[in-house]
Amino acid sequence: MDTKETNKRRTARFMAAVLAAVMAVTMTAVSAGPAWAADSKKAAKSSELAKMDIGASTSSTAAVSTYQTNLKEPEVSAEGAIVFCPETGEVLYGKNIDEKLDPLSTTKVMTVYLVMKQIEKGKLKLDDMVTVTKEDTQVPESKLYLEEGEKISVRSLIYGAMLYSGNDAAAALGSKVAGNKAAFAKLMNSEAAKLGCMNTTFKNANGLIVKGLKTTPRDMALIARACFSYEFVQKVCQTKKYKIPPTNKYDHFIQVELTNPFFSKQGNLKKPYEKYNIVAGKTGTWDIGNASLLEMAEYKNKHIITVVMNDLLDQRYPDSVTLIEYGRKVLDAKAKAEADASKSVQTESGSYPSFIADSKAAKRLVKWANRLSENSTAAIRIAEYGTDGDVLLKWSKVSGARGYKIFRSEGGAYKLIDTIKSGSNTEYVDRTVKKDHIYHYYVRGTGRGGGLILDN
Predict the structure, then answer these.
(1) Average of pLDDT values for 399-423?
(2) How much of the chain, in percent, has pLDDT values that exceed 90?
(3) pTM for the model
(4) CA distance 18 to 14
(5) What letters, b where the CB count within 10 A reaches 16 and e where it falls short, cover 399-421?
(6) Whose CA is closest to 415, among 432, 378, 440?
(7) Which residues of 67-103 are buried (b: 16+ CB within 10 A; e: fewer)?
(8) Tens digit of pLDDT for each residue in 363-381?
(9) What is the DSSP string of 152-181?
């Protein structure tokens, strides 16, 4: 065989090897866990509306710690309560966390969240004017006494709803977003479900008690995580007094004051919000025997969300303090226990030669595979370690999924641990976990043959 023919065969074999490697890169992208998934987070357009990184309402991956603390659980008078870490999605303490209770004016947190979403999408601006409808005014106190036909800014209505807890202000915001009370309630329920709320039904924008309006401490914690992630909302929640400018109906300023007890003197403590590093919060009051309080505090680069519902009016503040202090102790105990165990998850693309992995063909194929991977990735809503020693996962249904694959990492690469053959099943219990571990989970919807869900 001459030298020329030998070189041709060598070249052919080399190109075949390159093609095989490129396909291997692509198949790795198709079959792997989240290592190949692109980060689709978008930065907020306005610094005033920027969102803090305090944990998403749902996530493509979830970390679960099976470390147990020996701390004595707190005692609170509230019928329902929760201590929740938004970064990890962990329930650090719970009391009747899935019991349906009256949200009262903490409902306004959901209302403001929907307004902020509209602003973030560019469909609304803080300085847009809202024309108050007759329906908006037909609410009991507390309220700003808005009049039909009054023109007031979205910004002023948010301050009026969050500081003074104005029922008419919240109603006007709902009307601005959806047109009327019924349409806004429908939107509230739809968006609450997207946040992972499983036991919530809203009927109005302000939380006035009506038949069927219920939520739970767990669901309110998820709503708080979403709403309080906006810097503007945090700014509002930390404002003690705000002057609403004159309108076409009033020629003078209206001053509204914050109702959050953490921003007023409590006993010998002049500034509780500083001691507990309160970032945002909202009160809910019906009477002395039915009150609620929602707070988010920052602690050592994490956040602690506390919710008390159906509490005594004079106990909601001390109960919240008790929960915040307990949350701090739990986070400290977990950090200490996990210091040596926590390992970074493997995200390397593999050991392929750079001239292959970086080739145009490989990049195009990997880009295509990443897109399919994103379309197939399930948004995990709940990932928690239960008292029975199992890990419960719940996720949002993936469009077109015929089943799901459950991946788990213990600090290294993700490994397939189970397969679900039903596209309608959106929860899984991992009974193979051990105590004193950190597990990372990833759930992927599967298409025909168990592969990724192809583009339509």
Answers:
(1) 90
(2) 62
(3) 0.76
(4) 6
(5) ebbbbbbbbbbbeeebeeeeebe
(6) 440
(7) bebeeeebebebbbbbbbbbbbbbbbbbbbbebbbbb
(8) 676 666 666 677 888 888 8
(9) EEHHHHHHHHHTS--HHHHHHHHHHHHSSH
